[in-house]
Amino acid sequence: MNSSPNDIEGLTQATQDNAASTPIPTRTIPTLSQATQAIHADDHLNRLSDVAPPLHVSTTFRYASNPADLVPTKDLDHATLDAHIYSRYTAPSTTRLETLLTSLLHAPTLTYTSGLSALHALYIHLNPKRVSIGNGYHGSHGILGIHQKLTGLSLLPLDCPATSLHPGDVIHLETPLNPTGEAYNIAAFAEKAHSRGAYLLVDATFGPPGLQDPFLWGADVVMHAGTKYLGGHSDMLCGVLATHRQDWLRGLLNERTFLGSVMGSLEGWLGVRSLRTLELRVGRQNENAGNLVAWLDACLRRDSDKEQQQGGGGDAVRACVDRVQHASLQASDMPWLQKQMPHGFGPVFALWMRSEDLARRLPSCLRLFQHATSLGGVESLIEWRTMSDESVDGRVMRVSVGVEDWRDLRADLEEAFGVLVAGEKGEEVEGMR
């Protein structure tokens, strides 16, 4: 699952006019794999003998004790790794997290309190007149609704003609898509945006590092809800913006100070802990999801050979499930999709149940899948999606696959489908849950 390797040694400093400067890592050395980067890309930040980076809780930091080393803000052209002033600007834990992310995302990176705060900050900075966007995460549409109210922003459909776009507009592309896990062709949308002087934003939350690199296909800026796979333990909120545009980085950095959307030190420390195992977690989750989708698809297509190879259970699946959606099932798109996602198609997929009643009842019949919103954690989650997104069909279940043994997850689903079928027939089932 290794992607194009990068490692960080150098720093380019960005100066804020009215706030403290922070280093933005940009120089890379193409020698280390992703797994090694996640452990060592921040080695140059080590100042203590601790092997595990410590958590810094201070909100403010001492200036230099030597008067000759004091540099007023108006003269501050460069920052050093230890030049923290106030945690609303920068802090050791979040700087370390951004250093790791810069290496893993292959572009200088800033962090925010959540994915939506990162998205809000980007649209404040770019201030586009038009945004082309399709279905997807309802929270993104909520942010754009605020900007419509504040600035008169116009929304265009994702498949709008290129002639509808103008310089400075944005195509907002979410791929893979929430909640279905289906993928879009990044290169095609990059060509469309750039032909009109517009920008391509890729929300790559469902395709974390190791599964896809949107910059390879023309993205101008990449956003992640780091709460999901970058965090990976359902215990931290985080948002991420990455871009090679140094002018954008400087503006975003300065504006983050006044928006007040800098991550807390605890969340920064948790993020560093999480990234150490990113490749291990995502690799297992991706493999598990691929196996589960292949089993469900074989059952629905009545492919008896593949169904038996994957464990059987087809009758119960067909009685409850109408269809399954996932990027791995986009057969006609494989010529570009296998290049865009060469190491797997993501750990999230959607089930369309045969009725809304079956969708409502399925979670209570499961033992291992927990009924909760969000995704990306080590534990498998399932959500009757209408619980948190009113725009989604009431038959849709979003499945976020964890790191458990996929055969146990398959057995859990198969048994739950059996319980639902028995309930439809009015039968008594031993151990009904």
What is this structure, in a nutshell?
This protein is an alpha/beta fold.
Structure description:
This protein is of the alpha/beta class and 433 residues long. Helices cover 35% and strands 14% of the residues. It contains 13 helices and 14 strands. The strands form three sheets. Strands 3-9-8-7-6-4-5 form a seven-stranded mixed sheet. A five-stranded mixed sheet has the order 10-11-14-13-12. Strand 4, helix 4 and strand 5 form a beta-alpha-beta unit. Helix 2 runs parallel beside helix 7 and helix 10 packs across helix 13. The longest helix is centred in the last third of the chain and has 23 residues. The protein is globular. It starts with 10 loop residues before the first strand and ends in an 8-residue tail after the last helix. 50% of the residues are buried. The N terminus and C terminus are likely disordered.
By secondary-structure content and strand pairing, the structural class works out as alpha/beta
Strand order of the largest sheet: 3-9-8-7-6-4-5
Helix content: 25-40%
Strand content range? 5-15%
Structure summary, number of beta strands: 14
N-end to C-end Cα span: 38 Å
Mean pLDDT: 90
Shape: globular
Profile the largest sheet: 7 strands, mixed
H/E element sequence: EEHHEHEHEEHEEEHHHHHEHEHEEEH
The tally of helices reads 13
Spans where pLDDT lies below 50 across 5 or more residues: 1-22, 429-433
Give me the Rg, rounded: 23 Å
